[in-house]
Amino acid sequence: MAESQHQNNEPAKGPKAPTTPAAKIRMAIFGILLAVGLVWGGLKVFRSFSYVETDNAQIEGDIYPVISRVPGKVIDVTAKDNQAVSTGDTLIRLDPADFEVRRDMAQAALLSAKAAVSAAKAQISAAAATEKKLDADLRRSRNLQRQDVISQAELDATTAGATASTAQHAAAGDQYEAALAQVKLREAELKNAELQLSWTTITAPSAGRVSKKSVQPGQYVAPGQQLIAIVGSSDLWVVANFKETQLEHMRPGQPVVISADAWPGKEFKGHVESISAGTGARFTLLPPDNASGNFVKVTQRVPVKIVFDKRPSEPLAAGMNVIVEVKVK
Hints:
four-stranded antiparallel β-sheet, about 25% strand, 12 strands, six-stranded antiparallel beta barrel, CATH 2.40.50.100
C-alpha cells in the first residue's frame, strides 16, 4: 500500500522532446567551428615555438640621388614621375651656353700654348746654331792668339760671346720646357671645361624608377642640389625590427616567410642575411644615455636584414609594410 502511494506521488513523465533538424545543424556547425578553432589554435601554438614574428618590417631598396654637379638654368626635364629608366638615360638638361664659351676659351688657350712650344723649339734651334758657330770662333781665336795674330782682348771678347751663346741655348731649353708645361695645363683646363659642359646633361646613375622629382624647366639649380631620386630596380630586401628578446635563436641563413600588406594571402620566401650590430635607437640623432637621469628600461629593437630567395614577380615597392616570420627551430 505504501509503495502504491509512493508511485502515485511521482510526477508524471511526459514524452521526450524530439531534436529538430535546425538544432542538429547548429550543433554540427558549432562542433566544426570548435574543431577548426582547436586545430588553428594548436597550429598557432606549435608555430610559436618554431617561428618568431614581427610586423615592424618594411621593404627597402637602393635609392640613388640625382644631383647637379654644376650651377645652371634648367632648360629641359625629360624624366617623368614613376618612369622606368636605365643607367645613362638623360633626365635633365641645363643651359650649356656659359660652359660652351669656357670650352672655346680653353681650346684657344691650348692652341696659343702649342704655338709657344713651336716658337720655343725654334729658339732652341737658333740658339744651338749660334752656340756652335761661336764655339768654332772661340777655337780659332785661341789658335790665333797663341800665334800672336790677335790680341788677348779680342780673345776675351770671343770667349764672352761663346759663353753667352751657351747660356742662351740653355735658356731656350728652359723656355721650351715651360711651354710644354703650359700645354699640359691648357689641356687639363680644356678637359675640365669639356667635363663641366658634359655635366649640363644630367643622366640616370642607375636603372630604376623616377621618384620624388622636384625640378622644373626654368629653375636655377646649384651644385650638389638633389633634383630627383631613383629607386633602384635591381634589388629589394626587407629590414625587420625584432625585439631584442626575439633574437636568442636567430641566426643568418634561417628561412623566412614574408607577407606583404599589399598582397594579402601571398607569401614570399627569403632568408636572414645579417643582424645589425646596434639597435635602432643607438643610431638616432639623440641616442639614449642611460647613465643620466632616471632610467626606464625599454625593450629595444634590432634591425635584421632579410633577402628574398628569388626576385618577386609582384611590383613590390620600397617602404611597403610586411610581416615576417623567421623559422628559428
